[in-house]
Amino acid sequence: MEQERSLEPQLWHACAGSMVQIPTVHSKVFYFAQGHTEHAHAPPDFHAPRVPPLVLCRVVAVKFLADAETDDLNAKIRLLPLPENDLDLENDTVVDLTPPKPAYFVKTLKNNDVNKGAGFSVPRRWAEKNFPPLDVTAKCPYQTLIVKDIRGKTWKFRHIRGTPRRHMLTTGWSTFVEQKKLIAGDSIVFLRYESGDLYVGVRRTKGGGGDTARRVTVEAVTEAVERAACGLAFEVVYYPQASTPAFCVKAADVRAAMRIKWCSGMRFKMIFEAEGFSRMTTGTVSTVQVVDPIRWPNSPWRLLEVVWDKPELVVQKVKRVSPWLVELVSDMPADHLPPFSHRKKIQLPHLSHGVPSAKIPLIATMNPQDAQTELITNWRAKVVESSTKVDSEKSRSKQQIVEDNELAFVVTKSLSDAKRSRSTEGSGESGSGSIITTVAGKPSTITLNMRSLSYPNDDLSSFCEFLSSRLPPLDLSGCRAEDAIDFLRMQQASGDVEALVGRLSAACEVFGIKPQDNPFHNVAVTAYLKAAKEMTQETECILVFSCNDKDVDETLFIETISKKLQEREVTPLIYNLSWRKDIDTEIFHRFSVGIMVLSHSYTCTRQSMDHLVAILEHWKAKNLVIIPIYFKVTLLDICGLEGRFEAAFLQYLNSAQPGSVQKWKAALAEIASMDGHEWTKETQDMLAEEVVRNACLKLYLKNSKNLVRILALLNHSQPSDADIVGIWGMAGIGKTSIAREIFGILAPRYDVCYFLQDFYLMCQKKGLRQIRDDFFSKVFGEDKLSISAYDLKPSFMRDWFHNKTIFVVLDDVSNARDAEAVVGGFGWFSHGHRIILTSRRKQVLVQCKVKESYEIQKLCETESFRLCKQFLNGESVVISELISCSSGIPLALQVLGSSVSKQPINNMKEHLQRLRRNPPTQIQKAFRRSFDGIDENEKNIFLDLACFFRGESKDHVVQLLDACGFLTYLGICDLIDESLISLVDNRIEVPVPFQDIGRYIVHEEDEDPCGRSRLWDSNDIVDVLTNNSGTEAIEGIFLNASDLTCELSPTVFDKMYKLRLLKFYCSTSGNQCMLSVPQGLNTLPDELRLLHWENYPLKYLPQKFNPENLVEVNMPYSYMEMLWEGKKNLEKLKKINLSHSRNLTDILMLSEALNLEYIDLEGCTSLVDISASIPRCGKLVSLNMKDCSRLRSLPSMVDLTSLKLLNVSGCLELEEIQDLAPNLKELYLAGTAIRELPLSIENLAELTTLDLENCKSLQQLPFGIKISKSIVKLKLFGCTSLGLISMGAPLLSHFRLRKRKRLSDSSTHKPRKTAIKGLSRPPLPKFSLHSS
């Protein structure tokens, strides 16, 4: 997994601009899904329940990033949804520890700044203050500046001081402009840090910095919105230069804006950025109306429709704005609008009658004066005293305060460091009790005189009992914050810890504990409470419940489980049933996986056994996963009811409770049927590790994105007939696990259920007849049918099961006919019947008449990382590589991760490489079934793809392998249907585990590399080449020759008769392929289809070589002077690349290549005349002669009817061009010496790009160009001999009209701006016209 490189926040913000506000970590924001969808190129289709218009979130992390290619800035923000009642915004103050911004300046680029050969003017004062000083005594002061860009790349600029005292950047600036693709309107940011380091950044013009919609995919937005709607943690990526506002807005700003009763006629002002500076504009609210009341009801996003006082100043031509982006100028009377903020009320302990009035301390979430007003207004309470906790702080020792603050830091860090997904389900309201926080950095206390007071005595009793069990025993007056926090941890699973703190705090006050000594007022407890409140809302939590009656071994074992869960970033909820009167049913909404520690303590009370029955009932109803651990008991104790279980149940039976005892026995029988573990003291660490890993894997499956989406699909499906659903995907992707999970969730809804796992293997093992009989025995509810299943007619089946609901899952179906045979055909299934089929082949599902099919997606990097954490620690150096080589396949991740985790950390990486060379049996077995089921044509194609062409263009691969005699297109289609490969952007994608197994299959062909069909490993290839041991078995060689020096024999290829594919290349830029053949080559194999040899060292190809089968020649930077002497058969040659072969003088033999489609001769500086070398046929598509500086003439191209691209830019001596190809689309003539264009250019109806930059001898343009409607891009920079008069009025008016049209359509399309400034001042030395 490639690591993202974060930028320094100061550098990022300076490049982004002062108007870009990214929320700080730990601050509260409102996430607007409606605004996020504006980033995507199409409206997302949400599967989640109705998405709220705004979601209150906590900012967990922020990464400041930049695009690797364009330097476009973006921020990756991780958000954690908060419950709706967590609107404590007044005290949401986040300390900003960001260092001061460095000195910087911003300048918007003009046309003359981005012209070729131009320089860059730096403000004098800034340059003199921040650049290294120049030697002003020199005649022409200059120096070389070393500047880094935001990616860390170093640039060198020549800094001179001209006259009068003008600072310029000259040499190096044009290169920077060209590589950064800067245009007029972009801004440059120069920064200087205190260390003296200089940085340069790019601030793209709005909408000009790249296609945001291309980067922000619909899938990414959909996933974020769905997770936000479900209360799960999610990530968003925000591009500040996109033409849509920020959709993560500071919560306080939104709340403040929505307190205003907006109405039409209100005046406002708004700040926007133009040319690197903030500007103010004013306007009037014309309408206050929700944009999309159906999809986003009550949404404040773009609520205000506005009219600007000076529309020309508003760059984006915005017609609607959100209220928090504007500042109210005049307050007008307004109609009442629906409120968008929720009023937070103080919540107090539950009141009951009969208890005398008492003083209750309340630590409030607001200013003391506001709290008093709130209490008097909404509660029957009288404020008798109000104070802050300043005096109490003074009364405490300095050492005690320091210890409490340190404890607060440790508690908060331990709870918040783990990054977890959340769910608001079951999070619990604040309930009764005080809400604890700080005001202005200090706790604020308001003492109330209530008419009545009640608190559960059990809370205080439990706390006192807990203190008495401490070592040494404690009482209320002697306990500290650590004791209170330990007790709260034990109660955390109840989900109402906040209310518990309020009750215990009040109870301590009633019993005479002074506020300064009250442990529940301590700052450490406050910090724990806030962190615990967030933690208990996690969906990635596992419940660990027991009935621990102070057993030391059991306590230590549960602590071990809790620790190992936290190591995997999973929240443990410890829930002790011992002596608990009522069970918290809401807790079952917050977890889906539980670990049950079953001991004799369950028999101590009837309540514990009743709780056990309640847990099992929820287990059945909610399809929960429970993993039992038999602690100091055995299965015989439980099943046979021996020992203490037997004695306890006999006692309860004698107490006249036979009904309850029967329920308890049934519950224990259910537990005994589960896969459990027996505890022993010697193996408890290993047992805890195994149980935790198993539980986490179950939790991972429960939270699987694939599972959630399939369930959403099934729940919304309302077919009129039988519902036949298909699930397909590659081997190891998790189809069986997901199908079984779906079966467990949906089965209770149906009368008859049937799940057949491993259909393919069962057919081979049992046969179709036996499986069919088993199926019908199951659906009829009989052990053995009286008649054969083959005699049952579909009409009888339809009538028999017409009034029953049936649910059938057939897993891993490989043949549609077999599936139909087993269930007696799909025709008898009717409404209310559901069939789910899983298969590796989508075509099988189509043949089974599946109405809806779902492809199981590979794990994303986040999901892969989470699964890796079940085996490896976060600091492991192999996690990134493990994720990469698993390609998001769960089976590969689990098998490889499990194997690697058993190795010493220093040996993990090497062990992983060994596993890749020799894949584990479990992965091979899953892959082999798919591979063995395809024919020889497809097997050969797959092996070529796995060994050589992973990531290559499909069209390129088809062209090469078709020439090898394969049916490549059909083979690729079959491989895709078999889920062995996929296409991503028309490129071949082979999962790395499948690639490894494909290469392993080739490796197993022969122990000696010379006996294998395909070679890709550099060590094996060098061994074969240097020892001259090649054989006819070898069909392909792909050698990465980077940093490799090797000397080859003249006869090195003599025995490789069947060699089809030969590629010597350098994967690292700047390196050369140093393969030398000092004695020349006798020949090359005649079977070659691909000849790719970078830096080919000889002057000619071997004369004996017969290239009749060659399809592609790719030999850039070669030392060749010509290909061959004489003629050769080049009938199959379609592509040739000899670029930068500076010694090449003769390509006459290409005239024989009548099927040639692509010619690349860029940088062949010795070529002079090619008029007789270009094949005169209609198949040539692209001809690139760029920078052939000595080229003087081109042939007539009238016959080249397929030619779409011609590039002769940089051909300095080219003065004349004959007739052009009739269907040209792109013509590049920049820097040539042509004086006029051929008249045939007027007939090019498809010409879209014409580049005439720096054609200094060009006198005029043909009339047809002046009125052309097809040209989209016209470059005329540096055409110094071409005046305005020769351009003609039609051309100028045409481009002015096109520009006005673009501006009017700017809301939907934002092309690069047309640079036409200065056209009214003839003669114009440099200008450019672009139309798009």
UniProtKB/TrEMBL annotation:
Domain TIR: residue ranges: 537-699
Location within or outside the cell: Nucleus
Annotated GO MF terms: ADP binding; DNA binding
Any Gene Ontology biological process: regulation of DNA-templated transcription
Domain ALOG: 451-548
GO CC annotation, single: nucleus
Boundaries of every TF-B3 domain copy: 105-206
PROSITE patterns: ALOG, B3, TIR
Keywords: Auxin signaling pathway, DNA-binding, Leucine-rich repeat, Nucleus, Receptor, Repeat, Transcription, Transcription regulation
Segments for region (Disordered): 1302-1332
A Pfam family: TIR
Purpose of the protein: Auxin response factors (ARFs) are transcriptional factors that bind specifically to the DNA sequence 5'-TGTCTC-3' found in the auxin-responsive promoter elements (AuxREs).
Assembly with partners or alone: Homodimers and heterodimers.
Similarity comment text for this entry: Belongs to the ARF family.
Protein name: Auxin response factor
Organism: Arabidopsis suecica (Swedish thale-cress)
Organism lineage: Eukaryota, Viridiplantae, Streptophyta, Embryophyta, Tracheophyta
